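Just wondering, does anyone understand what follows?

——
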Amino acid sequence: MAAAYDLTALSGINGASQGLAVISNNLANSQTFAFKASRAEFADIFSGAQNGPGRGVRVAAITQDFSQGTLNSTGRELDMGIDGEGFFIIEDKTGKYPQLYTRNGSFKVDKNGFLTTQEGNRVLGYLRNDKLSTETKPVFDTTLSPIDLDELNKRPKATELMNFDVNLDGQEANNVDAAGVSVGNETANNLQKLIDPTTAGSTYTGFPDFSTNKIIYDSLGGEHRLTANYYKRDVVTQANSTVDANGNTVAAGSGVKYTSWIVQYTVEDKDPNTGKWVTSGHWNGDANTPKTVSGLIYELRFATDGSLIDIRQPTDNTGNVADYNSSPKGQDTPNDELPAYNDALVGPGEAGWAQVPGKTQLQMSWIIDNPLTGATDPLGNPATLAIDVNYKDTTMYAGTYSIRGVTQDGYKVGDLVGLSTGRDGIIEARYSNGRSIPVAQLALANFTDKNALDKLGAQTYAETYASGTPSLSTPQQNGFGSIIAGSLEYSNVDVANQLVEMIQTQRMYQASAQVISTSKQLTQTILNL
């Protein structure tokens, strides 16, 4: 019988030893980032008759408490804490597991520009889709990939799309010079002079009513300046109008009243010797196009509510659209290269103009003849630029000119200089070329049974059959937590509680040892009888 008591007490000593080991591990990791406290769960050993005394205790399981740890600010932009449910998803550089999971958001950027853990495992997320994204609305892929923060700016990108969100003053008077000559006088070649400054016969000496400019880029990252000059032309009355509110052609007198503006584009380069901007580009027409054609003009038509009806491009004197926009290059005769603008006018803006194919988005093409600060290709050919310009957000309200936003999608080569992460997990990278764009969105995973995960150390886990497959989402979606940038989740170990449990477990150990000692004394007493 004494031997049975000894074995029962010994099981208590073994159980207490394992319990103390768990407590010791918790206390040792009380300052470990994202550490989750464990506890030993005991179960009795019972066999035989139900009225038997039992055969001791065993450690049935060691479970982890996955409750939220305290999020403390570190001020380091690559530190990220999860406030709520979820694990960061990382690659396993050893290749043993397809993916690993962690709550430790202490990240770094490795020598190749990838976001990684301190152990070098790459962080996974959803990368920016450049084909679907715009400068104002990022679109991310739906498959997991390593987050590369350098790749987007290792190669320059030529400007392909511009958005002009501006307001033109609806109270502006018609543009005339000091002598009262109108820029909209087509018969005096004034509009032609906005395209080709060498045009003879023009008497207009005025200036634009409003101007704005933007740096654009060629395919090698060369910088150029695109300037947009706006001229208030005139108001076309309903009696003279032949267009409806959608820009469709209708019978004279049944159209809508609208206001006509001319926008002129030019491209310049900055002379590094003088610091002045000089004309460097001309319209990319055909072989007959003279380099003096250094401007492109379009007509903007605004409705009486200030909204843009459509954009018009000039036609030649035979009614054909001028080569410089959308007609096939080289099909017009040399005499058609510069629109004559001498059609009979129904009203300002009515004749000699055709609606651009995009209605509110025009297409322009340039050749940079003298790229002072730009670039030529390896064969010495001048840089070419083909740009879509979107005006759908441009308005004409009374009282003021304003630039709400003029954007372009080109850039030169740049180095990563910093990043910030939103609560939704979108990582915005800042580069030395002035770009600041969302490059990726972090992904989070969760499991039905977290305690069935394979614990690998360093606060990392791996999926098991018992844990179930991970559910994936982005932060703040589908019950997942938020990302707190510049913070880390600390250990959730309650030191005071662990010390109390240590004392209780120590007593369990001592009591079991005392049972063995008492059993031996009883045995000795029996032997001495």
User: Anything to note?
Assistant: Helices lie at 2-28, 190-195, 495-527. The CA atoms of residues 307 and 395 lie 5 Å apart. The chain has three domains: 2-67+493-527, 72-155+416-489, 161-408.
